[in-house]
Design brief:
Blueprint: E1 9-10, H1 11-34, H2 45-67, H3 76-90, H4 93-110, E2 118-119, H5 121-138, H6 147-160, H7 165-186, H8 188-193, H9 198-215, E3 262-269, H10 272-285, E4 286-294, E5 297-304, H11 307-317, E6 319-327, E7 345-353, H12 356-364, E8 368-371, H13 380-390, E9 392-398, H14 405-417, E10 421-424, H15 430-438, H16 446-458, E11 461-467, E12 472-474, E13 477-479, E14 484-488, E15 491-496, H17 499-511, E16 517-523, H18 530-541, E17 546-553, E18 559-563
Parallel strand pairs: 7-8, 7-9, 9-10, 16-17
Antiparallel strand pairs: 1-2, 3-5, 3-6, 4-5, 11-14, 11-18, 12-13, 14-15, 16-18
Helix pairs in contact: 1-2, 1-3, 1-9, 2-3, 2-4, 3-4, 4-5, 5-6, 5-7, 6-7, 6-9, 7-9, 10-11, 13-14, 15-16, 17-18
């Protein structure tokens, strides 16, 4: 459905842009993945851009949802800051990290007006320039013929434009499109492979969505736009065919001997001075270094041979978390070697888990895990990526959170469209997922296995102990900020003052209905003696009940309890 044309940029236009850009990247994802040859030919640029933008769009939607029906709309500053923060925490890969910085650069300009509700074309021109400049500054060794070149061309074209936001956006798009077509002549690896830059291709799609957000009309791609003689259409809706990649020199600059073996990405809480030192240290360790962010929160991306050293450097600089380490694999993509095809497993389990401790437990049990940080639920694209990573014909998906039901359903539907048989078990807590995983039998027929896992999850009552953040009404009465809450099956059942006593009350209520096994998952912030106290209580008062304890790490709740 066409959008209503508008000449200014406000919070609603930001929301519309994010939605349109996400749709555009979703349609182009496979094509962009196929032409991904720089800096590493790992075929994931389109996916990484999509996941990064999905995180940004989700953050913007959350801001609008926070205002509720009839409560007005967020300011432009609220929307662009949410967009930038969402992209920062959700950035994936080299391309996604740069996209996050592009959005952050725009937000810095667009939010300068404080509570301003809208801006005009002049502000958009400044925002696009700040975006291009800040992205280039975030890359340790900028290379022409990449998304940085495309972003700079977009900013330059916008600066020459006159008129409203729609005119500026269209000029930026046209400048980016022309720069994209020229990338094979700037970067030899692209010319030899006969493709345009994948990251730049993604940025063109994002700018096309910006034009549509203002004009209400989808940008018609210009026919015949090709990156090099014989190359695939750089902007068409069709899938690119990449020829000759196996013979191309796909090394990153300075990596002629095969290039680093690992990609390391993490979020980092640190000050500016510490990050400046971190940049120097990581630059000496590897290549493809991109550090984006600010105001105490950064997203760090680097390719290294010593992944441990890259993480240790982050620890010295501040607090790294959401650490992702990817091995580029056999037949190193840096040298253009082909990976031997990996045989698909018959069946796999993919589970969302709330903390590092449970992630280790699930992984040991054979599951592919997706880590959900407090306040940062995974997006559907991240779940789809995990299903693909499991590399199985049949997948059992455990969301382990009632709030992820629709997200998991969307991911399952997309995976099914790709030919993977997916069964979604509606687990509402990680302890239900543990119960389901305990009865998982890969050798059984798929339907039988799903039925048994579903029955085990359904037979497990679950509870959690948390600290109230604010005063609010609950099913157990009014709670104050700082009160300890015991939730049973999702509803507040106990309001207490002390963690161990509240947990004991919750456990007693759960065991009144019977049970044979109690599972305790203890978070890092829980009192050290809480598990010991509850185990002793079960031994003394419930003679036929066994107890098992796991360490959940930073899981967002003090304690998870399961009773089977």
């Amino acid at each position: 459905m066409a959008q209503v044309p508008q000449t200014f940029l406000d919070a609603l236009a930001v929301r519309t842009w994010c939605g349109l850009a996400l749709g555009a990247l979703g349609r182009a994802r496979e094509e962009i993945d196929a032409i991904n040859v720089y800096p590493v030919a790992d075929g994931d640029t389109g996916t990484n851009l999509y996941l990064t933008l999905e995180s940004a769009a989700t953050a913007v939607e959350a801001v609008f949802a926070g205002y509720g029906t009839g409560a007005g709309e967020p300011s432009l500053g609220d929307a662009v800051r949410a967009m930038a923060h969402g992209a920062l925490i959700g950035a994936r890969g080299n391309s996604g990290t740069i996209l996050a910085q592009l959005l952050r650069g725009m937000a810095q300009v667009l939010a300068e007006g404080g509570a301003a509700s809208r801006v005009d074309g002049a502000a958009l021109r400044l925002a696009l320039r700040r975006a291009a400049d800040s992205a280039r500054q975030a890359v340790a060794h900028p290379v022409e013929g990449t998304v940085l070149t495309v972003a700079s061309a977009a900013a330059e074209a916008a600066e020459e434009a006159e008129g409203d936001c729609g005119a500026v956006a269209r000029a930026a798009y046209e400048g980016a499109r022309k720069a994209l077509a020229a990338t094979p002549g700037q970067l030899p690896v692209l010319g030899r492979a006969g493709v345009v830059d994948a990251g730049g291709r993604g940025l063109v799609a994002v700018l096309a969505a910006l034009v549509e957000a203002f004009t209400g009309e989808a940008v018609r791609e210009v026919p015949g736009m090709r990156g090099a003689p014989g190359a695939p259409d750089a902007v068409s809706g069709g899938h690119a065919r990449v020829e000759g990649i196996a013979d191309a020199d796909l090394c990153t600059e300075g990596a002629e001997d095969g290039g680093p073996a690992y990609e390391v990405i993490y979020l980092l809480e640190a000050g500016d001075t510490a990050v400046a030192r971190l940049r120097e240290r990581l630059d000496a360790l590897g290549d493809s270094l991109v550090v984006v962010g600010g105001d105490g929160l950064w997203n760090v991306h680097v390719h290294v041979d010593d992944a441990g050293a890259a993480v240790e450097a982050g620890v010295e600089a501040g607090r790294p978390y959401r650490i992702r380490i990817t091995h580029f694999g056999l037949g190193d993509v840096h040298t253009g070697g082909e990976r031997p095809p990996r045989e698909r497993a018959q069946r796999a389990v993919v589970a969302v888990v709330p903390g590092e401790g449970l992630a280790g437990l699930y992984t040991e049990a054979g599951a592919t895990t997706v880590l959900a940080r407090p306040g940062e639920p995974p997006a559907s694209g991240e779940l789809v990526q995990a299903v693909r990573r499991a590399h199985a014909r049949e997948v059992v998906l455990l969301p382990n959170d009632a709030e992820l039901r629709h997200t998991a359903a969307a991911a399952a539907e997309q995976a099914r469209a790709e030919g993977i048989r997916v069964a979604l078990i509606p687990t509402r807590s990680a302890v239900q997922g543990i119960a389901a995983l305990a009865v998982h039998e890969p050798g059984r027929r798929f339907d039988e296995d799903v039925v048994q896992m579903t029955a085990a999850a359904g037979a497990t009552r679950y509870a959690e102990v948390v600290v109230a953040e604010r005063q609010s009404w609950t099913t157990a009465g009014i709670c104050q900020a700082g009160d300890v809450l015991g939730l049973i099956d999702g509803d507040v059942a106990v309001i207490g003052e002390e963690v161990t006593a509240t947990a004991a009350t919750v456990l007693d209520r759960m065991l009144q209905a019977g049970g044979e096994l109690v599972t305790l998952v203890v978070g890092d912030e829980a009192p050290e003696t809480v598990a010991e106290h509850l185990q002793a209580r079960v031994r003394e008062s419930y003679l036929a009940v066994d107890t098992v304890v796991y360490r959940g790490g930073r899981q967002g709740t003090l304690l998870l309890i399961g009773v089977e």
